[in-house]
């Protein structure tokens, strides 16, 4: 079985963070989102992975993933170019996939429990496709599956007014090469995109058997800042923490704190886990780093109070203010205005930034 | 919808027709691959189908 990992999309809902890099590289607990998908595929025994690239962020994704060997997989790149829809992206993978079955994984999705259950369920029968589902509270906002006996899918509906169930399609699919014939038969939707749900519905209408698996544990689409913070919180909750860095006498460190080898927590600071602190980062005196915070590489924090936040990296924070529920992009600086006159906040803010002061 | 792609003969990297048409000639985007890929490397059938149906490939 092969894997097809979607790494396109504009990341518009994550601006300004995505002005400088693709959404799939936004870190969650100091690891790019796309790395979780690669690890899930590998855990399911899938090491031949086609990575679909769109128009944006290609160089960054390729320089992070390389040929895949650092992550224990073998990567082939598939350039989709224009965003012509998920079914078009999958269709572009036909020569890579060949005669194999394959998993399609949306590269900005995260699952607590991985994809092993989904793959095993599909392999447990003679199916033309398998989809992963999760119960949602607001089914009118999702693609919804009607499911019959033993998880057999009977119908798919996109954002239904009258939902047949509360089981939403999440970004994980298992296909056989028969999906390519279905993709060839369908036409772009009203929004000009070739829709994967239309291709799966075509398989169903053609008498195909579609398996479904309701995934246990959380699932997150990390498309928006609040979703990144939520995913960060969920991953840190299960953090396997190693305090490899240096903790000075006089620093107060409580709970699960993952500290990279070259990171330092200086005397006079308080760090309360779960927290992840990456390489070459220093937490200086007077700082409080509270639960559910991930601080990226090459960062200095002094005097600040920060919690439930993601600091991407290469950042200096010296304000004495409280920073909560924040996503701070690479290279940002948040310094103190104390003693400067006239009194006030001095801001240099990129396009599409959001501040609550 | 017909999906038209070109596979790099040296490294297996796949490039969709819209990307090839935008560039006409491009260095293969595969990691470390030096091959050159061209829209004209597509089969004549693929090229004429793409050009006849260009609108649906140019969202
Ligand atoms: Zn190549």
Automatic annotation (TrEMBL), chain A:
Q: Which PANTHER family match?
A: GLUCOSE-1-PHOSPHATE THYMIDYLTRANSFERASE, THYMIDYLYLTRANSFERASE
Database matches in InterPro entries:
G1P_thy_trans_l, NTP_transferase_dom, Nucleotide-diphossugar_trans, Trimer_LpxA-like_sf
**Gene Ontology MF annotations:** nucleotidyltransferase activity
- Organism of derivation: Halorubrum alkaliphilum
The lineage's top-level taxon is: Archaea
Alphabetized, the UniProt keywords read:
Nucleotidyltransferase, Transferase
- What SUPFAM superfamilies does the database record attribute to this sequence? Nucleotide-diphospho-sugar transferases, Trimeric LpxA-like enzymes
Q: Which residues form the Nucleotidyl transferase domain?
A: 2-236
- Entry protein name: Bifunctional protein GlmU
Q: Which Pfam families match?
A: NTP_transferase (PF00483)
TrEMBL record, chain B:
The record lists the organism as Halorubrum alkaliphilum
This chain's protein is named Putative paraquat-inducible protein A
